[in-house]
Specification:
The chain has 70 residues and is α+β, with helices and mostly antiparallel strands. The chain has a three-stranded mixed β-sheet with strand order 1-3-2, with no helix packed on it.
C-alpha cells in the first residue's frame, strides 16, 4: 500500500488484486470509509495480494494515523 499527497479535493484509489469480481467489495469498503466526509487530497495505491478488505482497512487506518502524526 502506498499513500501519497494528491490534488486538492481529489481522492484517487487504485486497487490491484488477484481476486476475480472483487470490484464491488472494494467499492463498498471505500464508501463506508469515506462516506459523508470531504475526500482527503491523496492518491492511494493498493496491491492486496489476496488480503481481505478488513485487513486492507486496518492498514489504511494505520497509514492515516501515521500521516496524522506528521
Amino acid at each position: 500500500m502506498l499513500i501519497e499527497p494528491g490534488q486538492a479535493g481529489t481522492l484517487t484509489i487504485k486497487v490491484q488484486t488477484s481476486v476475480n469480481g472483487a470490484e464491488q467489495r472494494w467499492q463498498h469498503l471505500f464508501a463506508r470509509m469515506f462516506d459523508g466526509q470531504n475526500p482527503p487530497a491523496m492518491a492511494i495505491d493498493i496491491h492486496d495480494f489476496g488480503a481481505t478488505p478488513g485487513v486492507v482497512r486496518l492498514r489504511l487506518e494505520q497509514g492515516f494515523e501515521e500521516i496524522g502524526h506528521d
